[in-house]
Amino acid sequence: MHHRFVLHSVLFVAITQFATAQTLKVNGSTTVNLAVAEASEILRAENKMEIQVDTQGGSSGGISMLGDGLVQVGMISKHVSDDDRAKYPNVKFKETHIGEDAVALIVSKDVWDGGVKSLTKEQAKSIYEGKITNWKDVGGKSQRIAFFNKEPGRGTWEVFVHWVYGNPKSAPQVSFPEVGGNEETRNKVASTRGALSQLSSSWADGKRVFALGIKLEDGSIVEPTNDNIATKKYPLSRPLFVLTNGEPTGGAKTLIDFMIGERGQELVKKHGYLRLRDLKN
Question: Structural domain boundaries of the chain?
Answer without folding.
Answer: 2-100+239-278, 102-230
